[in-house]
Each structure stands twice: as C-alpha cells, then as structure tokens.
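Two entries, shown back to back:
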Amino acid sequence: MNFDEYEKWAIEFFKERNWYQLDSSLRLNFLMEEVGELSQAVRRYEIGRDRPDEAKRSDSENLGLIKEELADVLDNVIILMDKYDISFEDMTRSHREKFEDRY
C-alpha cells in the first residue's frame, strides 16, 4: 500500500469510528501518547527492559512493537494534516526547502 492509499484509508477509518471529529488539541495529546509508546518500544529494542514483571521479547517482537507505534504516530499526523488541509507533498516540499536554506 502506498502513502496516498493508506492516508485515504486512515481518514475513512477514523471517521467511521467517530474519532476524526475530536478536537485537534485532544488529537495532539493522543499523538504525544503514541510518541511516548514509540520511545518505550525503541528503548526496549536498544537497551532492553529490566523489569521482573515483564517477559523478555525477541528482537523480532520488539521491531514489531516499533512498527506498530510508528503507525500509531503516523495515523495521528495524517488526521492533523487532513484537518488543516495540508498535503504530504506541500508539507514535505516546504520542509525540504527550509532545511536546504538553513543548512
């Protein structure tokens, strides 16, 4: 699935479940929660977790968690982009220009 297909699917999925209409400030809270979960998944993969109440996971399982959390982050970014009518192309083009000018 390419990005455009996924973007369309995610927007429809969120709308069908009445998650899309949530306030953007709340959506940002969800995004931050998912970024925290991504951080935990990366830490688990890179340095492990030293908790007796958690079973050790394989590298494959840990990479699966990273993939899952990256997708959760992406979903929230997609919804914010759509709410503000910002296309992926416009966003990445202006970001690239900013970086090329700055650096």
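entry 2 starts here
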Amino acid sequence: MTDDYVMLHAKVPFGLRTPLSTDALWVDLTYDTRDPYAIHFAPRERPQLPPWLFSRELVSRGLYTGAGQGDVQLRPSARDGSTLIHLMTPTGRVELMTRTNELAGFLERARAVVPFGEENHWIDFERELARLA
C-alpha cells in the first residue's frame, strides 16, 4: 500500500445513440489509485444519465472483444474503430460509442501508474476494514 495517490482525468467525446439519432456527449473519465480496479464515467450536461463505475479490466477487454453481462456490456464496433457501451438502467437503455483509441489511451495512462495485477498494492486494507467496523 502506498500513502500517495494519483488521479487521472480525461474529457472524452462520445456519441449517445438512440433509435432516431446519435447526439454528441462529453464524458469525464477518472482513474483514482485509491480505487485502483475502477474507472469512473461521468456524462456531462445530461442529468438524466447517472455516473457509472466500470471495472478497469472490463473496459480493457471490451475494447477488442465483447465483454460484460447484464446491465453493462462493451464491444468493439465491427465497422469503424469505435467501442460501443450498452448500459441498462431501471428507467431504460442507453448506447454510447467512442473511438477505441480514446479509451485505449486513457487505459494506457492508468496502466502506466498501476499495472494490471498490482492494484492490491494501492489498497489500504486496514483502513477499509476499519470502515466496516
């Protein structure tokens, strides 16, 4: 466990796909070493879209092969170098898309800080156990 932490941020363009159109949408991506297994997705300017917390591994796998089950699924587009993210909420379904290289670049920055398989070195297990007590 390390006492220092690192936060990475990126503002990434997405398309919000509906049956009738695709609207532009900016999403704030955040990677925080205090939660080293996760990537936070926060849509801007769309209060009806909640923030999402994705497994870093899920996003990584979803860039190149289908990944996820149930409420969250990622897969590469078969035609244009983009990644599709399907989200189910209690109020409906949303499909987002972005250029794969945008997500891959953000993941690479996170991997440079915390390589896959080393996430546990960033967790303060004593603090987490104390929070449960």
